């Protein structure tokens, strides 16, 4: 019943010109006997922000982390994760290369204990880029894209650890962007930030969706409704509903979604 509804809605949700950046088909994630994610099938439209919402323990991080195989060695993952015609889960996939295309920003900023410049240049050198002017160009462009350049350009040698939490998070975004990803996965990236830094981060993400596909886990309903184009609501390891954010928040198809977004849950 739900499936049929969703298929009908998906025709409305995805205009023919909206390309799909990533999709999962019947994704299952098991932590031992705990079947933490069940039959997750979703398509993420390119150049848009999709929010994953749901109560604590509903499986949002589990699902997100599976998308670039952060659950390898932690959980068993079955089903397909299709990216550019390739199953991300296939044995032959080079995980490090794949993660350059499908990058991740974590809940707490995790800069290296290095200078601002070296936070970005170090991974580039590891990738084999040696040309200093090329590296300088990437450092500048990724810091600009992450809306941090103006705040740090005069002292790139400063330790990243001396930046504020919000600046550190934007530096981590810049570090991901320097890898030229297609997709950015974000697990509650604003949860450790104050309201002003959160606002800056949201403005940054809003600009980034012109060039990247962003999938973000958030506990904040306000953030999901402000920021995202699409929203998936999860409950007890299942995707209950996926639609435009507007529909999820104003006209959800499923009662459970309505209860959750209106705060009448539990
Ligand atoms: N590393 C792990 N090992 C074992 N079980 C885990 C692990 N991570 C998550 N789980 C289990 O998987 C289920 C989903 O957890 P998950 O963290 O994905 O939910 P969530 O919706 O992201 O929650 P939260 O909003 O609290 O972060 C829970 O039952 C949790 O206990």
TrEMBL record:
Residues 22-261 form the ABC transporter domain. Its EC number is 3.6.3.27. Keywords: ATP-binding, Cell membrane, Hydrolase, Membrane, Nucleotide-binding, Phosphate transport, Translocase, Transport. PANTHER family: ABC TRANSPORTER I FAMILY MEMBER 17 (PTHR43423), PHOSPHATE IMPORT ATP-BINDING PROTEIN PSTB 2 (PTHR43423:SF10). It is an enzyme of class 3 (hydrolase). SUPFAM superfamilies: P-loop containing nucleoside triphosphate hydrolases. GO terms for cellular component: membrane. The keyword DNA-binding does not apply. GO terms for molecular function: ATP binding; ATP hydrolysis activity; phosphate transmembrane transporter activity. The keyword Transport applies. This is Phosphate-transporting ATPase. It comes from Pediococcus pentosaceus. GO terms for biological process: phosphate ion transmembrane transport. It holds the Pfam family ABC_tran.
